[in-house]
Amino acid sequence: MRFDGTNESEVGDWWRTHWGAWSTPAPGSFNGASMSEGESHRIAAGLSEVAMDHVADVLDREGATEILFRSGATRTIAPGSWIVNCTGYLFRDRPYEPYASRSGRVISIQPRSATFPLSSWMGFLTTHLLFADKIRDARLYELDLVDLRQKSKAALWPAMMSLGQHNMSLVIDNVPTKALLDLGFDLDRWFPLPRRMVQTARFMIGHRRKREHHRRTLDTLRERFEVRCGPLPGHTS
User: Fold this and answer.
1) Which of 5, 51, 127, 224 has the most crowded CB, counting CB atoms within 10 A?
2) pLDDT, tens only, 133-168
3) pLDDT digits 0-9 by tens, 93-132
């Protein structure tokens, strides 16, 4: 609710300060992940050195293994070392395809026409709308995550949260409650049932009012960055 489509830097700083956990000195490229404070402290305690750079390649040169960084710097690593590639999201530049066909009989799960931050949520929830014959009428917003990421990495994460909250509000109005109870990867399940019930009640009371805020935020992002963001053609918000 703090994000209005123009203040991604402020929201990012607030999020990291109040809710973030990190093991590097400057987590400026944060894009969302789940890690406990205990895990963060354990990782930090095991680090002897941190190189704030991007790995471009790992090369075998004259019997030695060398890391090539994007900056052009290189570093030789000891034999027997492990290299773990943790690149996170890979927004491949693929042709646009709407998340639902004009007939409402075909859905497409991909970041050019994203309806939720994660493909797992997209697949589960849009499939329920498809079989209920409501995939078009629900008027979910789509967002081109690939294009937005290229134009503003800082705005990407809060934009995905606004997209998810907006579209979840529409899903709740269009699918049976049982479908949401079967959402096995819902992170709220980490918490005790009484806490989940309180938060669910709060969401149900205010989600339609908050949906308007998220819609205005997404509309602002569309105009500001000139990205595809809104209901599919033929529908209004």
Assistant:
1) 5
2) 999 999 999 999 999 999 998 999 999 999 999 999
3) 788 999 999 988 999 999 999 999 988 889 999 999 999 9
Q: Please provide the distance, in angstroms rounded to a whole number, between the alpha carbons at the two ends of the chain.
A: 19
Rounded Cα distance between 186 and 116, Å, is: 13
Is residue 53 within 8 A of residue 71, CB to CB? The reply is: yes
Written in H, E and C, the secondary structure of the chain is CCCCCCCHHHHHHHHHHHHCCCCCCCCCCCCCCCCCHHHHHHHHHCCCCCCCCCEEEEEEECCEEEEEECCCCEEEECCCCCCCCCCCCCCCCCCCCCCECCCCCCECCCHHHECCCCHHHHHHHHHHHHHCCCCCCCCCCEECHHHHHHHCHHHHHHHHHHHHHHHHHHHHCCCCHHHHHCCCCCHHHHCCHHHHHHHHHHHHHHHHHHHHHHHHHHHHHHHHHCCCEECCCCCCC
* pLDDT at residue number 237: 43
The 3 state secondary structure assigned to 62-83 is CCEEEEEECCCCEEEECCCCCC
More confident of the two residues 8 and 61: 8
Residues near 237 by beta carbon (within 8 Å), at least 6 away in sequence: 139, 141, 215, 219, 230, 231
